[in-house]
Amino acid sequence: MADTKEQFEKVISQCRELFEKKLKDYGPSWRIMRPQSLTDQIFIKANRIRSLEIKGVSMVDEGIRPEFVAIVNYGVIGLIQLAKGFADTTDISNEEALALYDKYITETKELMYAKNHDYGEAWRGMRISSYTDLILMKLYRTKQIESHGGKTIVSEGVDANYMDMINYALFGLIKLEYGEEAVDN
Question: What pLDDT does residue 119 have?
Answer without folding.
Answer: 92
